[in-house]
Amino acid sequence: MAINWFPGHMKKTQREIKENLKLVDAVIEIRDARIPRSSANPDIDKLVGDKPRIILLNKSDLTEKSVTKQWIKHLSSENVKVLEVNCLTGSGLNAIKPAILELLKEKHDRLKAKGLVKIITRVMVVGVPNCGKSTFINKMAKNNIAKTGDRAGVTKNKQWIKTPLGVEMLDTPGVLWPKFEDEETALNLAFTGAIKDEVMDSEELAYKLVERLQTYYPEKLKERYKIDEIFENPLDTLDAIARKRGCLMKGNEIDYMRIAVILLDEFRGGKIGNITLERP
Ligand SMILES: Nc1nc2c(ncn2[C@@H]2O[C@H](COP(=O)(O)OP(=O)(O)O)[C@@H](O)[C@H]2O)c(=O)[nH]1
Ligand SMILES: [Mg+2]
Question: Is residue 204 scored above 50 in pLDDT?
């Protein structure tokens, strides 16, 4: 699976992120909770440095809860707080403010000691494509559409959004690139829709998804598609699923394209169940 990002774009966004980093107190990094490792940018630690960071494991409505808890523990550190959220409903988002305050406590204490009363906290949002950056920013900006506009001495040509949390957020999120170095990462990104289907072979992708699901979630697969058994060869399982769904062409041939679209769609929509594709 040969997928790549044009290095010119990568360099430009990297530069932009570095510049924006100077303007903020903390970084909110969004990841897809179904693939907390694959949806991370390999250079994020280097980029963010020791700036306080909040990792939002977004789309947690689609995951296996206990595994998400494991990830939270695994990814947390002194400078990094990890929260599970659902940006569609807003669930979990109110934990952001306390997390930011905790991360910035020392800094705030220092400022207060200097006599500052009103402290504005600025954050920037980063994440790989499709992790939910726009949904997050829209949700946070809701009921508070008023943008703060340019502010002398702070930044030029940058829009900040005032959120109900009392935190100002840079309104354009930084797009990071994931790494596709190994096939598993590329597949995880493709399964979850982070890589456009147009550049993928959907039939192969669906086959690989069945292979994965029948290894880790055989019962969910059986239940969703009302199949009696899982076959050793994932292709046989895929065929059984296709037959159950009536994805057949003339002469009873399997319509692989049609079942592929159905499978990927249902997986992405959480219809096969709460599934996490990788473990810490
Ligand atoms: N199930 C679920 N879907 C979400 C959540 N957040 C975002 N999405 C969906 O994920 C897709 C990508 O979101 P978007 O905000 O455009 O991602 P961006 O590319 O990072 O800006 C959209 O279809 C969103 O509706 C969530 O918490 N749960
Ligand atoms: Mg977006």
Answer: yes
**Minimum CA distance residue for ligand 1 atom 9:** 132
Is the pLDDT at 202 greater than 80, yes or no? Answer: yes
Instruction: Confirm or reject: Cβ of 58 under 6 Å from ligand 1.
Output: yes
Q: DSSP states of 196-254 as a string?
A: -GGGS-HHHHHHHHHHHHHHH-HHHHHHHHT-S---SSHHHHHHHHHHHTT-B-GGG-B
Domain boundaries, the chain: 7-170, 201-269
CATH of domain 201-269: 1.10.1580.10
Instruction: Tell me the per-residue pLDDT of 256-273, one tens digit each, with 9 for 90 and over.
Output: 999 999 999 999 999 999
CATH code: domain 7-170 is 3.40.50.300
Ligand 1 contacts CB of residue 135 (under 6 A):
yes
Q: Which two tokens stand for residue 145?
A: 């559409």
Alpha carbons 193 and 187: distance in angstroms, whole number: 10
Q: Which residue from 13, 41, 60, 87 has its CB within 8 A of the most atoms of ligand 1, so it is best to mutate?
A: 87
